[in-house]
Amino acid sequence: TWAASMTPALCFPDWRTGLVRPAGGNASLFGAPRESAPSLPLAAGRGAWVVATEHPSKARRRYGDAYEILWITPHPEAGLPSARPTALDTEARRAVSGYLSAHPGGAVVLAGLEQTALFTEFRALLAFVKDAADLAALHGGRVVATVVPGGLPPAQVAMLSRRLDVPGPPVVRSSLPGGLPTAAPGSRTPTR
User: How far is CA 168 from CA 13, 37, 86, 182, in A?
Assistant: First the structure.
């Protein structure tokens, strides 16, 4: 199963009532691509620029013909829109900017960020995610990022979520570090 983290205005059906809320804002979908792909029309709208590490023919089968694909690959093929993973700050950023300029209010889907992280330094990926979110905000669009649960360490998922200005997935801890607090009576320090 997948879970979604989003700003309050993002378009997702309420799982209890099935009612759809208005669209707007950035989102993170946490789930395997085959599970999150059917949810993209709700999150990104009927068309978007999908930035993915999988070959465009495979991505097109997964996401559909309504989505344009930017392939992140170290070995581009002629005639296919692509960017090298070591050039996210230039080639991929330029492609995202061009798409959003041509499609104001459009969406950019950063599909499989855990796969992109395998090809590039994580700091470069963080900067690219922030650039994409800033460009989308500038053009009235939004960014939807997909991450497979467990595909990245929780700290990296939290950093990516902060770059998108959306809450990350819930983190459950068995106990707080350090044990019970040692607050004096009447202290403002919370106790259990």
Answer: 19, 19, 26, 31
Helix axes 122-138, 154-163, angle to 10 degrees: 30
Q: CA-to-CA distance for 137 and 8, rounded, in angstroms?
A: 16
Query: What dihedral do alpha carbons 34, 140, 130, 157 form, nearest 10°?
Result: -40
H or E element: which one contains 29?
A: strand 27-30
In this structure, the chain runs to a length of 192
Whether the CB-CB separation of 43 and 27 falls below 8 Å is answered with: yes
3-class SS of residue 42: helix
Q: Nearest-CA neighbor of 166 among 182, 142, 140? A: 142
Tokens of 91: 């080639």
Dmax of the chain from CA atoms?
A: 72
Do the Cβ atoms of 143 and 108 come closer than 8 Å? yes
- The strand pairing partners of 107, in sequence order, are 48, 142
The whole-number pLDDT of residue 45 equals 60
- For the record, the structure tokens of 134 come out as 């800033």
Residue pLDDT, tens place only, 4-30 = 433 322 333 333 333 333 345 666 555
Q: CB atoms < 10 A from the CB of 150, how many?
A: 10
